Amino acid sequence: MLLFIEQCLNGLQFGLLLFLLAAGLTLVFGIMDLVNLAHGSLYMLGAYFAATFAALTDSFLLGILLGLAATLVVGMTVEVVALRRLYGRDHLDHVLGTFGLILFFNEVVRFFWGPAGLNLPLPSWLNRSIEVLPGVPYSAYRFSIIVVALVVAFLLYVVVMRTRIGMLIRAGASNREMVSALGVNIQLLYTLVFGLGAALAGLAGIMQAPILTAQIGMGENILILAFVVIIIGGIGSIRGALVASMFVGLVDTVGRAFLPDLLKLFLTPAAASTAGPALSSMLIYVLMAIVLVVRPEGLFPAARR
Amino acid sequence: MRGKFLAVAAISAIAAGPAVAQNKPIKIGFISTFSGPTAVIGNDMRNSFELALDHLGRKMGGAPVEIIYEDDQQKPEVGVQKTQKLIESDKVDFIVGYIWSNVLLASLKPAVDSKTFLITANAGPSQLAGELCSPYVFSTSWQNDQTPEAMGLYMNQKGVKTAFLIGPNYAAGKDMLAGVAATFKGQVIGQELTKWPDQLDFSAELSKARAAKPDAIFVFYPGAAGVQFLNQYAQMGLKGQIPLYTAFTIDETTLPRQKELAIGVPGAQEWVNDLPNEQNKKFVADYKAKHKTGPSFYGAQSYDAVNLINSAVVAVKGDTSKKEDMRKEMEKANFKSVRGNFKYGPNHVPIQNFYLQDVVKQGDDFVLKTVSTIVENSQDRFHSKCTMK
């Protein structure tokens, strides 16, 4: 039972990390109608910047803040320099263009940081185990990821639901042409939204860096999961991204943890240990397929196109 | 007049004949991973390979050596393509390399069917030592199970009664966990295979391991995954609680990033940088002088591959068409290996010692040191399945 709670916490942490990545992606896709494959590269850059600044300033927190700022700057620069040309074009053009950006960023990172990858070591006050519930020890750092991600989710909710800028974002997600026709500076809005998305992606990368270490191409695998999340949750909807990412994170982690044991009940141990990991990694995509069949526009669709 | 001219021309052609054959370059194809996070390993292998060639004066049996490097991107489908290219397009005499067991298994058929010699400088899948063995395939590394078998013996020595095994779900991962289970006399209370190479977050598996309360955890995660595993293991607070026993998880390519997390975590290996034979001292010293860091076991195995090929080429005096003679020479393992002398089993897998390695801090650096010999002249347990034709 306690193991189940611990695995649920693991799933929650993974889900919230996905949420940070998916929130930015869904905003950019929903408002700017831009399929941004380079989102994963911003995730990677966040991790590399944070690791570099933390090493330079010898402070974990300062490294995170500077890394976040640097990713924000890079994100907005990429939007102004490269992505502006892609607006209004076919999604396939977006895919090609941003895929090129992925390759570009991978090589830039290799050029500046070498192929080996970077560590972001945790300060001692985070690098230990705490008891979140009696008898359930959990990594202090992973717990802090849950806390930070929930705070960010709350802030995002406040910004999107209770401020003027948030209103413009929601309006843009619903009906872009109307917002532009009402005289809003759509260029600025796009740059800001992209910057927000980049900052969220960078934060996800930074928080993941102490666990997974910064590696070239680290964004590519998790980007696929982020796309699955926004498809399930509904494009343009942050609430959908939150619900879907929780779901995906829990299904993936708890499935990975308990499916092999479940299979051992009616398969031989050798077959179960082969089928278990394979099936559990398929679960998320099966889930996505079911959602696409039952409710193709996602669980909480934002736009009426 | 014309007759004399023709005669002179004919004699010069015949005289020039053998000389041309002697200068025909020895073509070697080298397949490893040179992109992505595990490029560190490929670079180490390439550096060691080049160093070995430099030590030989870049000639084997008087003939110059030509090397073609190819990147398998850690993917079996790319590995087999590159292998085919090397055989059919570049027409190499030898293929060396292969870090990953799944890439090697995929690339085996083109090499064996074309009767091209393949020297694996790392991967050692159990199938290759058994039913898939071939007269054209040699290993300068080991068979995957040998190293964890040694670690299992060490775990017995330390009185470990229950163990939890964690590894990646591909050919080598399965071999490693099976290898430990083969020699470990205690009880294996749990086994987890993770998705490879995508899954880098081991929280679910570590939680399960902790809940099972084993005496020890055995782990196999090569390359960057080893760094990530040790990080997460420490973050979960397991470092003081459950001792860790490893194979191929801590080596010179990962140690610079694992640092103090690797201290006190034992590993088993057939080669450690401080083995006291002359060839090894020269190899490590020259590598450090050229590259500032020390070589890893991947590099040591690549260095040995060069000398294995050289022994064969020298025996046939540069005539690489004499494949039977080259094979017979290579089977003798008649070269100075950096791990000390070893013999080949009937399946062309080395019968060799395995040493216990541990990490110590020297000044600001972390280095690997040999602690003891775990087992001598260990042979893989699949050789009886090999019926070499």
Which structural traits does this protein have?
heterodimer, A: 305 residues, mainly alpha, ABC transporter involved in vitamin B12 uptake, BtuC, two-stranded antiparallel sheet, 11 helices, 76% helix, 3% strand, B: 389 residues, alpha/beta, Rossmann fold, 6-stranded mixed sheet
Structural description of this entry:
With 305 residues, chain A is mainly α. Chain A has helices at 2-32, 39-57, 60-81, 91-113, 140-162, 164-174, 176-181, 186-212, 218-233, 238-264, 269-294; strands at residues 129-133, 136-139. In chain A, strands 1-2 form a two-stranded antiparallel sheet. Chain A is globular. Chain B is α/β, with parallel strands linked by helices and 389 residues long. Chain B has two domains: 12-142 and 275-348, Rossmann fold (3-Layer(aba) Sandwich), CATH 3.40.50; 146-269 and 355-378, Response regulator (Rossmann fold, 3-Layer(aba) Sandwich), CATH 3.40.50. Helix content of chain B is 42%, strand content 22%. In chain B, α6 (146-157) packs parallel to α7 (171-183). Chain B is globular, with a radius of gyration of 22 Å. Mean pLDDT of chain B is 88; it is low at 16-21. Classes of the chains: A mainly alpha (305), B alpha/beta (389).
